[in-house]
Amino acid sequence: MAAAGGRRSDAAAPMMRAPLIAAMAALAIVLPRAPAHAESVTFPSGSYADFRQVFAKEAPTATVTIAATLTFPADARDRSPAVVIVHTIAGYQDSNEGRYAAEFRKAGFATLTYESPAARSMLQGSFAASRSGPPWASAVAEAYGALRLLASNPRIDARRIAIVGFSFGGEVAHLAAVERLRSALAPGDRRFAAHVAYYPAGVYGIAADQAYTGAPALMLLGEKDDNLPVAKAEGYFAYSKAADRPSPFDVRIYPGAYHAWTVPTLGVPRFYPQYPSARKCPYFLLGADRPALLVDGQARPMDLNLVQTCLKEGQGYSMAYDEQVRAESTRDALAFLRANVRP
Q1: DSSP characters for 191-250?
Q2: Residue 100, Cα to own-chain centre: how many angstroms?
Q3: Directed axis angle between helix 136-151 and helix 168-175, to 10°?
Q4: What's the gap between Cα 8 and its chain centre?
Q5: Cβ density class 63-74: b for 16+ within 10 Å, e for less
Q6: Which one has a higher pLDDT value, 78 or 335?
Q7: What is the pLDDT of residues 166-189, one digit of tens each?
Q8: For residue 246, is the peptide bond before it cis, meaning its omega torsion is within 30 degrees of 0?
Q9: In this structure, what are the phi and psi dihedrals at residue 125, rounded to the nearest 5 degrees?
């Protein structure tokens, strides 16, 4: 894996639970009134106990109706390409997801933003669990619910719908590229046309017996991100390549960048000890059977004691805004979307 600025890797944390008012206040902003060409829409989704329930194609434990905003570019033509934008664990912020949505619309994409019920539930519970980890399964189901909504809109080109996510949303954008999840949540050949994962959580990967959808994908990582350390990501991609299942993710690493570098309300680097993190945990590998752990380059049986220990030892991580890296990563994401979704 190589740093950004023209060098790429051919291989292929989020803002986790935020229970403290002071920390959330640092991320919160007042949202402006939606632009005139925005539409308030809703779509149904399912809540799942774990990934096993999704893989077995069982009925969801509950159903939810999710409020969303669909906005078309000012010069929208018939059948626009679109981008589903999945927010950080802190929820939708106009200074982050809203700002990116505006950039994508300038480039010719319609945008769909929504508040994730799965993210809200994560604020009150663990982000990794014994079997596969609620609410991640529900979060991926939400993303596919958004895809179905857009694909049914006659003004959207159903073949050109991408997903872009940040932190929590970055993990969702990664998981949405897993073929077994796609086939369970979007029967037929419906899929996202491209995936962009900004500083994902680095919680999940796939075992050697699984595959990705084959859609082009981009992962943007920070050199100083201690929530998803670069070495951890490199270990997962090396495992995938050795198993002859190389990840489809093109990886960019931005020198000096911390987790959440796109969020201007964060300011200078600061360690947030209240946030849980999987940074010292191995990847959870989703496979044909129970999830495994990626330990020393090999898939090992799930060890709940190990998981509990690594979560305890990995508590907290650093975040900081970086205007220069934000600008560079925005250019990279837009170039990737233009090349693969063609507005």
Answers
A1: --SEEEEES----EEE-TT--B----EEEEEETT-SSS-HHHHHHHHHHHHHTT----EE
A2: 14
A3: 70
A4: 20
A5: ebebebbbbbbe
A6: 335
A7: 999 999 999 999 999 999 999 888
A8: no
A9: -150, -175
Q: Name the more confident of 37 and 41.
A: 41
Tally Cβ neighbours within 10 Å of residue 62: 12
316: exposed, middle or buried (C-beta count within 10 Å: 0-12, 13-18, 19+)? middle
The DSSP result for 23-74, as a single string, is: HHHHH--PPPPPPTTEEEEEEEEEE-S-HHHHHTTPPPSEEEEEEEEEE--T
Q: How far apart are CA 304 and CA 314, in angstroms?
A: 15
Query: Which of 215, 206, 198 has its CA nearest to residue 252?
Result: 198
- The structure tokens listed for 223 are 């050199």
At residue 175, φ and ψ (nearest 5 deg) are: -65, -30
- Please write the tens of the pLDDT for every residue from 325-339: 999 999 999 999 999
- Quick one: tokens of 135? 């609410």
Question: What's the CA gap between 97 and 260, in Å, rounded?
Answer: 12
User: Is 33's pLDDT higher than 80?
Assistant: no
Phi, psi angle pair for 49, to nearest 5°? -70, -35
The pLDDT of residue 6 is above 70: no
Q: Over 60: is that where the pLDDT of 315 sits?
A: yes
- The per-residue pLDDT for 288 is 86
Q: Is residue 60's pLDDT more than 70? A: yes
Q: Of 107, 34, 42, 52, which Cα lies nearest the Cα of 76? A: 107
Q: Is 238 exposed, middle or buried (0-12, 13-18, 19+ CB in 10 A)?
A: middle
Q: What percent of the chain has pLDDT over 70?
A: 86
Domains delineated in the chain: 21-341 (3.40.50.1820)
Tens-digit pLDDT profile for residues 87-126: 998 899 999 999 999 999 999 999 999 999 998 887 666 5
Token pair listed for 292: 């495994």
